[in-house]
Amino acid sequence: MLRSLLRSRPPRSSSRAETELAFRLPTRTIVGPGSLKQLGTVLGDYEAGTALVVTDPGLGKTDLPRRVCGFIETAGFRPWVLDEVKPNPRVADVDAMAAQVRGHAVQVVVAVGGGSVLDAAKGVALLLTNPGSIRDYEGRNQFHTPAAPVVAIPTTCGTGSEVTWVSVLTDSRQRRKISVKGDGLFPEWAIVDSDVLISLPADLVAATGMDAMTHAIEAFIGRASNPVSDELAISAVTLLLEHLGAAAADIGANAAARDAVMRASTIAGMSFGNADVGPVHCLSESIGGRHDLPHGLLNAVLLLPVLEYYGDDVETRLSELGSRCGRPDLRMAIRKLTVQLGLPAFGRLGIDVQDFEAIARAAEANGSNSSAPRPMTSQDYFDLLNQLGGGA
Ligand SMILES: [Fe+2]
């Protein structure tokens, strides 16, 4: 029954294997305020020993890692904290963290943070069971041994990485982002507790929430969508249109909005984890490989210009998505939300026009370009960037 449902729509790309369009989600996911306290029960799945906690220096100064370590100790594990993940984590950072922990018996990796932390932790988990550098595993299923088990605890409302098979890292030698993907890279567990968002700054709520919006929209309008990823995308976009503005205005006081955007982020992750992202991410990852700018902010700023650039090419699917979300003019709804959130224009990001050519080439080479509604050429990306203008 499920199989026939998933096959009811023919593949849109003859080059894409039909099996790739089958929806799959092996991560066991617990969603709800207060769910962090279930970490101890989750760890009962594993043989007691060392639990490697991966987080970042900012979170390391908060109460959250201490609470996580408390649950770990109560479950009979020894926590080992690495709190050195930087934004836009680099290949070299992941290799260095792996070098510290390889050879030690680590039973499980507990990742506590935003997308940077989750992606870095997934990379470290892969290098606990595979030799070499994380760079060696760029692409799809380029490793034989599954990563060490990961329990992912997201602390922003955007990444979705807690339920996907991908780790996106910066190769600073080549000034580009690399994607490491594989069936053995899905976290085994995701604990999605909206209470951890209580003190998230408003600009991060806005930028990461718009990253989630971009995940859902790109999943829906892209060539790799399927009926299940579509329904998840509709749910995520509906929640974000309804609640992201209120969440950004006062996430600490508005529990309903906080819970809605957190749920939307994970649901959008489930959608794009199966249907892929598209040209907004191709461009944002290309820019992010050369400029140390937040991933969520780049997507937030690029989403509407890309949708406008596509024009009639995405009209049918965008209208379908908007209608299902109760906003038939989806572009207008996103424009209003963007203004409400106070997001800057692309030109304010300070990206030198001299970089546009290299950015456009890398965007075309991004593996997700083939999932776009209409794959864009480097000339398309270059033209779009010039329309947006530089800010050197
Ligand atoms: Fe993203």
Secondary structure blueprint with pairings:
Elements lengths: L1 H5 L21 E4 L7 H5 L6 E5 L2 H4 L3 H11 L3 E5 L8 H11 L4 E8 L1 H15 L9 E2 L9 E5 L11 E6 L4 E6 L7 E4 L9 H20 L5 H23 L5 H21 L3 H12 L4 H16 L4 H10 L5 H12 L14 H10 L12 H11 L4
Bound molecules: fe (ii) ion (FE2).
Report on this structure:
It is a single chain. The chain is an alpha/beta fold and 392 residues long. It folds into two domains: 178 residues, Rossmann fold (3-Layer(aba) Sandwich), CATH 3.40.50; 188 residues, Dehydroquinate synthase-like, alpha domain, CATH 1.20.1090. The chain has a six-stranded parallel β-sheet with strand order 1-9-6-4-2-3, sandwiched between helices. The protein has a three-stranded mixed β-sheet with strand order 5-8-7. A hairpin with a 4-residue loop joins strand 7 and strand 8. The N terminus is likely disordered. The structure holds fe (ii) ion.
Key words describing this protein structure:
alpha/beta, Rossmann fold, Dehydroquinate synthase-like, alpha domain, three-stranded mixed beta sheet, 15 helices, disordered N terminus
Question: TL;DR of this structure?
Answer:
The chain is an alpha/beta fold and 392 residues long. 47% of the residues lie in helices and 11% in strands.
